[in-house]
Amino acid sequence: xxxxxxxxxxxxxxxxxxxxxxxxxxPQPPRITSGAAVLIDATSGEVLYSRSAYVRRSxxxxxxxxxxLVAVRxxxxxxxxxxxxxxxxxxxxxxxxxxxxxxxxxxxxEGMLLRSGNDAAHAIATAVSPDVPRFAERxxxxxxAIGARQTHFVNPHGLTAAHHYTSAAxxxxxxxVALRQGEVRRIVASQELTLTPQDGHGRPIxxxxxxxxxxxxxxxxxxxxxxxxxxxxIASARRGDVHLIAVLLKGGDRYGDAIxxxxxxFARDGGAFVLPxxxxxxxxxxxxxxxxxxxxxxTLLDGQPLRLRVQRMSxxxxxxGLAxxxxxxxxxxxxxxxxxxxxxxRLPWWFSPVRRLLPRAVDPGSLxxx
Length: 370
Known about the structure:
It is built from eleven helices and 16 strands. By secondary structure, the protein is α+β, with helices and mostly antiparallel strands. The protein has a domain at 3-20 and 273-341: Spermidine Synthase, Chain: A, domain 2 (Roll). Strand 7 and strand 8 form a beta hairpin. It is globular, with a radius of gyration of 24 Å. The two termini are 41 Å apart.
């Protein structure tokens, strides 16, 4: 393999792909008013539109999607939580919780995601963790683990604070992962729910997202507004097999921007093309298969076919090692890449029974020398 090709492959795998390169041959996107925006295909993860999407911004209540993700992953939805005076006193948008009222964690999630209750967000954080700072640590660990590397939060609700920031691209990634949780999907797609404390009377709460019921396919996800952040919106919509997520930050017309971006995306997006980790994408001359080392996905846009090119390393390739790279292209533009591996050698059928009979002091890896 030529040195240039090797360097290009390494650049694809380590440096990522520029959304601008993908967008260069695309039809012109609509004009929007928001200071930062991104549109992604939620199935493939491909960025379809980007405007200042990697610039740090104050996120306002869009923060709460990460709060919900941590709570669903690490909390118990049926846990009964008593609202503290500290939670009830959090300023800003409120689910009107009263100190001493008791709700399940699931109901607090509803109050936080529908009504955008800062009080509910605080109650969730202190139910899942000993205190808010330690819950924020969990939020930041989760963000890093899912690839939202420009995110750092210090509270669960999004009230303006020093060192509380994210980016439009990170919020799209957070939404993409959060919406895989069935409970989060159910709540953010609901226009109205009833919030009922234990031994109390229920009261209706309405979703702050006005796209629900007014935009075809809209199914969430979160609004947010503060003086520092401006008007923000994470908008999710599905039509057929296509699932899009738009993020608008510092918006002059966040709903209009979302509608224009989603319409543009649905007009172009023909669905995602996904190859799972472990898929065989070729064979070596000796017959051994070449498999994907991680998931590889792209989006069918504007009727342009996607092509898979596998570039194999030269020389003897051991079992279980790097064998090259698979590159997904649209036209001449690379849009995604994944390492290609040789599979690990399979043990003979008789190895496991023999291994169980070996003395513990014997290393099974040295069986060949016995």
